[in-house]
Amino acid sequence: MAKPVEVTDSDWDSEVLMSDTPVFVDFWAPWCGPCRMVAPVVDELAAEYDGKVKFLKLNTDDNTATAAKYGVRSIPTLMVFKGGQPVESVIGFRPKSALKTTLDKVLA
Amino acid sequence: MPEIRDYDIVIIGGGPAGLAAGLYAARGRRKTVLIEKGVIGGQIALTEIVENYPGIPQVNGFDLAQTMLTQAESYGMETEYSEVSGIEQRSDNKWIIRTGEGELLAKALIITAGADYNRLGIPGEDKLIGKGVSYCATCDAAFFKEVPAVIVGGGDAAIEEGIFTTRYVSKATVVHRRDELRATAVLQERAFTNPKMEFAWNTVVDEILGEEQVEGVALRNVETGEKSTMPVSAVFIFIGSHPNTDFIGDLVPKDAGGHILSDEWMATSLPGLYAAGDVRQNSARQVASSVGDGVTAAIAADHYITANFHDESPAPKAEAAKAN
Q1: Cα B45 to Cα A32: distance, rounded to the nearest angstrom
Q2: Of the residues A23, A25, A35, A80, which is catalytic?
Q3: How does strand B84-89 pair with strand A77-82?
Q4: Is the Cβ of B166 closer than 8 Å to some Cβ of chain A?
Q5: Nearest to B175 by CA among B189, B166, B162
Q6: Measured distance CA(B40)–CA(B73) in Å, rounded
Q7: I want to staple A60 with a disulfide (CB 3.0 to 4.6 A). Which of A67, A85, B51, B161 is the partner?
Q8: Range in A100-104, B56-60, B96-100, B313-317 the model is least confident about
Q9: Which of A32, A39, A90, A91 is an active site residue?
Q10: Distance, CA of B19 to CA of B290 (rounded, Å)
Q11: Cβ(A15)–Cβ(A7) under 8 Å?
Q12: What is the DSSP letter of B59?
């Protein structure tokens, strides 16, 4: 089963910007309650969209440069990248159905 | 549509009131499901430290909620993550609950849907949410290291969260429309002795400034009418809350603020319908009082089912309840 993989400032370009498939990034930090709640939902999505979307997690405490580059000032922030560009951004906890709608829009 | 699922007790909302009701309902061997649309714990899931819940000197709000959930689930309470779109009472007095996952049927329904924070409703606010405008200091304060912030409000949440932001921000200015705080005395003492906290009394925020991110706030003194601009990078807003009762419509009597009217047993005017915690009128809006409300509602619902549905199948056995 596909699980989200940790991405960092240093492998951001190769993992996200140069990805052939759309990339879903979960910006999170260990101290953030809602992030801990969204994590199992992202895990489920990673399994359901296996092969169609790449799922990554970025720890905003350890990777401040990337978080700052994309203006992340609230977490969880869930961003979808396509062709190296952020195309969708969701701030805060959302139910799985809402996130699926966002992903399906990108894949359509 | 999936077929309707049958329960003894359905609980709408997974904050302290709902989790406490779920624990008691499940221990009463009532087939129970709790429906949550967002984060288990509700408002406390966003609280860094809960230190006024008797018996627990200090606990992280999210952890407290998870512990309550695990405790209730260990007795067989089920949890469903979806949003309730409407409720309706059948002629046999059972309740139909419509959710994103289908329909549920309940002998008794406990509404513990809690409250959501209010927005200021001023220019710049919506546009800059997540870009410096925040309703959760524990979620977002860490993104504002060594920059100034304003805290809007004067109650417990504003002061507690304001104090939390001082771990990161260079200065936290509390903007309050009155000349004194409503917050608990202990919190006020902490705020007044915190070297990073400042206070703008009798002042309101008219506008949040910035395009891509928050750059400042336009302030107005309500006594003198004097206007000013304060450069800040973050605006944390804590100006009270409103009950989540829109989905009920006009089915049950509510007060002008949308709070459900319920009696000392949390019973509403409709048979088998209970309201507990922040959704009801005159709630003290504390974790401890919500827990008490939830327990009361579950006990009342249990008695109600015994008195009104005694011919129906018995409560689930322990094995059945734990199977989930």
Answers
A1: 9
A2: A35
A3: unpaired
A4: no
A5: B162
A6: 13
A7: A67
A8: B313-317
A9: A32
A10: 10
A11: yes
A12: B
